[in-house]
Amino acid sequence: MTTEANRRVALVFSLFDANANGVLEADDFELMAGRVVSEAHASDQAAKDAMRGAFRRYWTTLLTELDENGDGEISFEEFTACVLSPERFDATIAVFAEALAALGDPDGDGLIERPLFMALMRAIGFERANIDALFDAFEPTDGDRIRVETWVAGIKDYYAPGKAGIPGDHLVVGTDV
Question: How far apart are CA 62 and CA 167, in angstroms?
Answer without folding.
Answer: 25
